[in-house]
Structures are given as structure tokens and as C-alpha cells.
Amino acid sequence: MLNKKDAKELIAMAIGFSSAEQIEVIIHSFDSALTRFANNYIHQNVYEANTTISVRVIFGKRIGTASTNSLALKNIKETIRCAERMAKFQTENPQFVSLIKTDPKKYRQEIPSVKSFEQISPDKRAEAVRQIVEIAKEKNLLAYGSVSNGLSVIVIGNSLGTFAYHRSTDVFCNIVMSGKNSSGYAQSGAKDFDEINFVKLARIAADKAIRSQDPIEIKPGPYTTIFEPLAVSDFLDYLSAYTFNGKLFEEGRSYFCDKLGTKVVDERITITDDPFCRKGFPLPFDFEGVPKKKLVLIERGIARNVVYDSLTATALGKKTTGHALAYPNPYGPMPLHLVMEGGDITFNDMVSTTKQGILVTRLHYTNVIDPHKITLTGMTRDGTFLIEGGVITRGIKNLRFTENLFEALNRVEAISKRQELVAHEPGYSGRLGSGTITPAIKINDFTFTSATEF
Predict the structure, then answer these.
(1) 124 plus 229 within the same structural domain
(2) Contact status, residue 399 vs residue 300, Cβ threshold 8 Å
(3) Are residues 235 and 135 in the same domain?
(4) Which of 98, 107, 295, 329 could form a disulfide with 325, with the two C-beta atoms 3.0–4.6 Å apart?
(5) What residue stretch is flagged as signal peptide (predicted)?
(6) Residue 110: helix, strand or coil by DSSP?
(7) What is the spatial distance between Cα 236 and Cα 224, in angstroms, rounded to a whole number?
């Protein structure tokens, strides 16, 4: 794993190899280890380590990119030559002005990892799985899922003197408990392995599987619906991709177009992008090396801001907000550290004040129908329950929903005091801890359009 000194030297050498007017180098190095289990047995234990070097070279307003996962100097040179050749065949990008020059003193001091990656052995992950499986056997259920941990280093450097280095660790666990005709789900992510209570997590998933056994079918229609934080995080992820996105705002495709400064959702809703929230996974800079800071996106129901990288900011005559993703980026800038403020009611009181409604653990196959209005469709999964007279009475078969998110967020009845970190599941092409911090919410007349047979 690259330390700060070696990373700085590597970037300096890469910059020296280029004949471009400007060059940017991004290094993403990670170690990732995973133990996967199914049918109450461990069936896979894997480890991956990789380092990717991505370069962006500029001649005037022509930009070329290339990447390699080799640290051999000859391969880095060839990657830069490839990017330079590509740049000369590109059309000019009128939005490009310059790479970013930053003062390293403006980066907030990074929060050190609590435990090193090396201290989390396969045996330690296996012990966590043993605890999970014991709960499954105790309840006559089958457990499926994974326990994984990772170490990531992100380095940004360019020919204008920008240099930024960040090292972080993360741990992720997800559990599905399965019965004969029901299932329950729980997941958790953290910076440190010891922050996750695997027994408690397993009991949550097992309880959902047991309580949803022999689910009944109910008719589709509008219902008062309580969404647990895991489900709410899906909604926020779509706001991040389509509404808070400065590129879509610039192109007239964001719901916030012509709405900044106006009320768009219930006044109890405040959403920020906070890269330094201690509950989450801090990141002190974006992928252009711009120092990050907290940004209010929705304040007490009022649309306040969208996010920019340098290209979208230039197009709108704004300043970058520090939300660039790695170039080339066809999606536009997005906030990666969303925090929705909590409300004034406990989760138990949200349930007890619901005469007739539905409790949703999480969503599945959620997709956008109308990206401008944020009309979504998807299904419930792994723990959907009927609430009657303020009590969770039994499991129900899963339902498909079709709903306009902004209309739904104007029908919010309650927001829970407690917020939870919903960590994003690590992917297969890299590792960097991230997640959304959100409470549970209760929405009136949420529209379910069809039912399933399971």
C-alpha cells in the first residue's frame, strides 16, 4: 500500500514524463478481503489488491485520458503517451479552463483509521460469521451474506502543484436470514471492525424472517408507509444522481431547475452533503483535489444548492463545490456523503401511531421512470410488514411501488430522531468506504401498484 511519501514521488515522476501543457494523476490503491457464507457455511474467502493510475492530459482545451494498473515506470510512460495521442484527436472542450491548483493547508486533517487492515485476519471474519450462523441455527433459519474489510488510498496530483492524499479503512457486513417462505435482512458498515455488533445484526435479520413467516397478500393501493433507513437511502441516492447533480442542472434536466430558493419537500426535511460527519466515511477532497466542505442541499424543505465540479461550474459561471468524480465522468458531479437530519419522534412511536399501514425494511430493483421529476418504481424485499392498530402484526407479500419522490416527500407524516449510516456495498472494481446517513420516515398514501407471489 502506497504511503504518502512514495505516492508523492510517483506522481512527480509521472508528471515529469508528460509533454502536455497540464497533467493530472489519480492513484487509487486498495486491499479488499471478503468472507462469504451461504446455507450456514462459509463457501468463499477471497483477497484482492490493486492499484490504478489514471492520467488526464491537456493541450489547450483538448483532453485525453488513459489508465493502467501497473506501477512499472515504462508502463506509466506508455499510459501517458497514450493519453497524449488521444488528446490530439479530441475536439476542444469549451468548458475546460484549467486543472485545479490548491493549497494543501486547506485540506482538513484526515481522521486516522482506527485499526489497520492487516489486523483483520480471515480468522477474525470467520469468527464473525460463526456468530451469525449460530443465531441462524438457533432460530432454524439459513444465513447468507458476507463480511468484508478494506483499506483504500486515494491520491490526487497535478502539474500545477496540487497534491492530496487520503487513507481510509472500512468494514461491511450484510445478512439475509431465510425461512421456508420468508426472509429478513440487515447490514452494517463502519470504519472499524469492532464497531459492528455481528450478533445484534444477525438477530435483527432473524427477527424479520421469523415475523414475516407465512406472509399474507394485500391489495395494492395507497398506504401509510414507514421506510426504515435502508429503504430511505435508496431515495436519497436517486436525488444525488439526478437532482443534486450540477451537470443535469446545467442541462435543464434537474428537478431543481428554476426551483432554487423555493419549497420542494416537507419543511421538516433538511439534507446536506457532509464529508466530515463522524458517523460516515470522511473524505477531505474530491477527485480534482478540491477541498471538501459541508454543503446544504435542502434546508427545511427549501431547495438551496446543487453540486459542481470545475467543468459544470465554468458552464454556469459558478465555483466548484468540490464534488468532482474521476475524469472522464459522463454522469456529472454528485454528492457522496448525504446526511438527512433526524426528526422529533422515536421509531417505536412512528409505528404505534400508525392505525393501518406498511413497514418496509428495504427496496429492491429500484429504477427511475422519470429522472426529471424523480418518479421511481421498485419492490419491497426481505421484511415487509402490516401495521394494524399501532402494532406490527404479520408479514405481507412483497409489493411493487410507482411513486413520484417529490410528491411523496411532501406527504411526510413523521421523521425518526435516530439516524443510521447505510453503507454502500463494496463493488468489484475498487474499494472506498461510502454511505448515506438517514433516519426512518413515514409517508402518507404511498402508492403500491401491484403485488408479488412471495
Answers:
(1) no
(2) no
(3) no
(4) 329
(5) none
(6) coil
(7) 20
Do 301 and 204 share a domain, yes or no?
no
Q: What is the CATH number of the domain that holds 197?
A: 3.30.2290.10
- As a whole number of Å, the CA-based R_g of the chain is 23
Residues 266 and 347 in one domain: yes
| Residue listed under C-alpha cell 489547450 | 60
With contact defined as beta carbons under 8 Å apart, do 328 and 65 qualify?
Answer: yes
Q: Which of 125, 103, 164, 165 is nearest to 33 (CA)?
A: 125
CA torsion sign for 284, 289, 293, 294 is negative
Element (H, E) at 128: helix 122-138
Do 196 and 87 belong together in one domain?
A: yes
Give the integer Cα–Cα distance in Å for 351 and 359.
8
Last residue of one domain, picked from the residues 211, 244, 277: 211
Burial, 32: exposed, middle or buried (Cβ in 10 Å; 0-12, 13-18, 19+)? buried
Of 68, 87, 57, 81, nearest in space to 28 by CA: 68
For the record, the C-alpha cell of 366 comes out as 429500484
Single pTM value for the model: 0.96
- Contact yes or no for 394/359 (Cβ under 8 A): no
Q: Last residue of a domain, which of 158, 176, 211?
A: 211
SS3 45: strand
Backbone angles phi, psi at 318, to 5 degrees: -115, 180
Q: Residues 317, 259: one domain?
A: yes
What are the helix (H) ranges across 244-384? 246-250, 310-316, 347-352
CB 238 within 8 A of CB 418: no
Question: What is the pLDDT tens value at each position of the chain, 454 positions in all?
Answer: 789 999 999 999 999 999 999 999 999 999 999 999 999 999 999 999 999 999 999 999 999 999 999 999 999 999 999 999 999 999 999 999 999 999 888 887 655 554 567 678 999 999 999 999 999 999 999 999 999 999 999 999 999 999 999 999 999 999 999 999 999 999 999 999 999 999 999 999 999 999 999 999 999 999 999 999 999 999 999 999 999 999 999 999 999 999 999 999 999 999 999 999 989 999 999 999 999 999 999 999 999 999 999 999 998 899 999 999 999 899 999 999 999 999 999 999 999 999 999 999 999 999 999 999 999 999 999 999 999 999 999 999 999 999 999 999 999 999 999 999 999 998 777 899 999 999 999 999 999 999 988 8
In a shared domain, residues 226 and 191: no
Structurally, how many domains does the chain consist of?
2
Cα dist from 323 to 24, 245, 449, whole Å: 16, 9, 36
The 10 Å CB-count burial string (b at 16+, else e) for 394-403 is ebbbbbbbeb
159 shares a domain with 302 = no
